[in-house]
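user: can you give me the structure for this one chain? tokens are fine.
assistant: on it. calling the predictor now.
[tool input]
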Amino acid sequence: MPTRNVIWQHFAHAAWNAMRLTSHCRRALIVFAFILIIGHGIQPADAQDGQPATITYYMDITNVRTSICVGQTVTYHVNILARVIRGGDTLGISNVTHAEVNASGYDPGILTDSPQLQSPKSSLLISHPFTSDFQFTAIAPGRTTIYFDGVVHAQPRNFVTPSTFPVQFEVPVRVVPCNISVRLNARWATTMGPTSQLAIAIIPDGHMSGDAEGYYSGKADMILVIRSKIPSCGYSTTVVRSIVTLRGRLNTDNQIVTTLTFPKMSGDEVGSGTNCYVANAGGNIQLSGLTVTVPTSGGVVSVPQTLSNPLFEVTSLVDVYVFPEPSR
């Protein structure tokens, strides 16, 4: 292709000759000179024929999972793509020999990996990215980072030495327990004059289920047993069953915060003797709500809880058990 200087030299020479001709001939010759310039198709310097395009490579993951439940298996679809950042001849991209990706840096006590689901070598074209799938199973709560490191191997035109282009993508991962077991063991004792009261509350097997973002909810059956010793009446025992509401969340310190809400309950303690000192010592029973915090590995917390009814109120330490379960 003629250079710009050559074309403009032709145009100047034609214009000089046109000055020596008649007016009609000058106009015709000038028009012809402009047609000559347009016909040669001057292009930007970065898009001239034969000049290779400038290509860059980058990594992308189409389904980034940063939160995973314990027991879940997730697949990361890793792509290496080519991007044209300066126009030109893109045939040079066909000189890519292969690409490869590896995953590293993650805590094997939190995540375990499976073999790649596809071959680590694949074609790489502008319209066809290199792809490779990686599979991980979450085995314990915690935080870690997966480092996906890739390399594109290319043989650029006009160069004898092959070139490599590194690419990387980091995925921070938080593994959370998504099924939580909640249990409670409580005991209160008090006296009113000659009358003694003993109450025991048990949540034998409560459950909360949640998501990978760390929000939980559930319900638990609770059994409350109240035993009264009344002069001249002996003992009376009342069993009350109720449903406790459970709510939970993971806080910023990666701890499980669990709240237990107890409904109002009804129970009567009725003596059976002829000369009973107390004929009816029952009424509405209420347990105060509880909030406990444990690490993601679980734990037992002793907290104060108040049992009250219209006749008395007593506070005692109760034990709350909160532990993660395997994902169902």
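assistant: here you go. The mean pLDDT is 77. The chain has three domains: 4-42, 54-176, 179-325.
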